[in-house]
């Protein structure tokens, strides 16, 4: 089933965000109309052969929210609760993120409604290739470039690339990003989200000479959370708490992050709560610690009206997508809590995806040092513009980021 051109999705978060901008006078009523509507919605239900010979119908989506600034860009997630509303919200966020960071992309997102744990590797490969066969006419290096997201990885991107190249009959590495390096992937892509956030925090705290005075709690110790913990620890910050799905650990004097990461990943102990270096706490307790900097780096919607009054951090960096509800965000801002928004804070991933796309188009391969240097330059340019507008117009960092992003999209609209 395919819906084309300006069908409205019941995307509540998108609606709240853009209507909030209109209420603040950031958008006119006409501009509001453009941002409230996804440009193109794709949905497919396709059969996939299971290892036992049976057939399973797979439901999949691709939303291209806005393509004013260039081809779509956004990941594909595999999750049992994926639906059209979620994919639309994520595509909307991606449209704003690519606009804010001045990338030549629009915003898109994809999803497949499965739990990967329920399928063998060969079945996942057939599901991945089937996704490409369903949507390939609407994808491509100059149309819409997918990437990894929740429960997808470089191996799945390689399967999808191979399927696309079989269909179009030619090598086309720029079709997809987040690939293995040997298949045209970029150096530094695996750590780019955390690296971008780290560069922002370096700038944010550049006036503080002794970084040990800055206590940090990080909810999430996956790819982004563990990397930002390690980077901050190496830079001298005092990381006092981290957590994963099982719970967290806290040490007021600072955790040994290097040993913790080795314990969880290299020694395959799987959970931080088994590490003998701090007291066990819950994920909820981590969010309410009296720290200078709180980094939600796992799930969305973890700070809500129900727990916001217990949040004591003076600054929050949104490494996860949408970790603070709209109502909670308003309360925090009224209390003077500085929120570095996800739109900016986790943009490192899409920036390095852009670098991968460029390298593929030009048949080049950049060194890790070159990638990180360009990432730092790109994300700090966006950060400084957000900061300047925030101070000039007395806006929160999030409202400033949204204003810059929305106005660039609207400015490119051709009607």
Summarize the topology:
Blueprint: E1 2-4, H1 12-23, H2 29-35, E2 40-49, E3 55-66, E4 72-78, H3 84-100, E5 107-112, H4 121-135, E6 144-148, H5 154-168, H6 192-204, E7 215-219, H7 223-234, E8 238-244, E9 247-250, H8 257-266, E10 279-281, H9 283-287, E11 293-296, E12 315-317, H10 326-334, E13 338-340, H11 342-345, H12 348-362, H13 368-393, H14 397-411
Parallel strand pairs: 4-5, 4-6, 7-8, 7-11, 11-12, 12-13
Antiparallel strand pairs: 1-2, 2-3, 3-5, 8-9, 9-10
Helix pairs in contact: 3-14, 4-5, 6-7, 6-12, 6-13, 12-13, 13-14
Question: How does this structure look, described?
Answer:
It contains 14 helices and 13 strands. It is α/β, with parallel strands linked by helices. The chain folds into two domains: 2-172, Leucine Dehydrogenase, chain A, domain 1 (Rossmann fold); 191-345, Rossmann fold. Strands 10-9-8-7-11-12-13 form a seven-stranded mixed sheet. Strands 1-2-3-5-4-6 form a six-stranded mixed sheet. Helix 7 links the parallel strand 7 and strand 8. Helix 4 crosses helix 5, helix 6 (192-204) packs parallel to helix 7 (223-234) and helix 13 packs across helix 14.
Overview in brief:
With 415 residues, this protein is an alpha/beta fold.
The CATH architecture name of the largest domain reads 3-Layer(aba) Sandwich
Radius of gyration: 21 Å
- What gross morphology would you assign? globular
Q: Quick one: how many beta strands?
A: 13
As a percent range, the share of strand residues is 15-25%
């Amino acid at each position: 089933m395919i819906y084309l051109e300006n069908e409205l999705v019941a995307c509540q978060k998108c609606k709240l965000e853009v209507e909030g901008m209109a209420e603040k006078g950031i958008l006119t009523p006409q501009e509001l109309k453009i941002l409230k509507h996804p440009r193109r919605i794709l949905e497919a239900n396709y059969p996939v052969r299971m290892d036992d010979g049976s057939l399973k119908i797979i439901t999949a989506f691709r939303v291209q929210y806005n393509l004013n600034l260039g081809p779509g860009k956004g990941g594909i997630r595999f999750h049992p609760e994926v639906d059209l509303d979620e994919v639309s919200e994520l595509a909307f966020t991606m449209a704003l993120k690519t606009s804010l960071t001045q990338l030549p992309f629009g915003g898109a997102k994809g999803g497949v409604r499965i739990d990967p744990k329920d399928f063998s590797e060969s079945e996942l490969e057939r599901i991945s290739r089937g996704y490409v066969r369903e949507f390939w006419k609407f994808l491509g290096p100059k149309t819409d470039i997918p990437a990894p997201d929740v429960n997808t990885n470089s191996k799945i991107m390689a399967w999808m690339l191979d399927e696309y190249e079989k269909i179009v009959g030619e090598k086309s590495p720029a079709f997809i990003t987040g690939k293995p390096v040997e298949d045209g992937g970029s150096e530094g892509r695996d750590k780019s989200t955390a690296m971008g956030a780290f560069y922002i925090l370096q700038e944010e705290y550049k006036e503080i000479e002794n970084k040990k005075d800055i206590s940090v709690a990080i909810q999430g110790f996956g790819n982004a959370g563990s990397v930002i913990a390690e980077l901050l620890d190496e830079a001298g910050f005092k990381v006092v708490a981290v957590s994963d799905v099982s719970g967290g650990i806290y040490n007021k004097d600072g955790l040994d992050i290097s040993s913790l990461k080795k314990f969880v990943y290299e020694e395959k102990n799987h959970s931080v709560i088994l590490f003998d270096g701090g007291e066990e706490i819950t994920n909820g307790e981590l969010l309410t610690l009296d720290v200078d900097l709180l980094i939600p780096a796992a799930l969305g919607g973890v700070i809500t009206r129900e727990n916001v009054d217990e949040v004591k951090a003076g600054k929050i960096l949104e490494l996860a997508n949408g970790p603070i509800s709209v109502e909670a965000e308003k309360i925090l801002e009224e209390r003077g809590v500085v929120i570095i928004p996800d739109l900016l804070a986790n943009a490192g991933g899409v920036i390095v995806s852009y670098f991968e796309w460029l390298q593929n188009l030009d048949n080049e391969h950049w060194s890790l040092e070159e990638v990180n240097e360009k990432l730092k330059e790109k994300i700090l340019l966006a950060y400084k513009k957000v900061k300047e507008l925030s101070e000039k117009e007395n806006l929160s960092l999030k409202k400033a980021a949204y204003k810059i992003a929305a106005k660039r999209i609207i400015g490119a609209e051709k009607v």
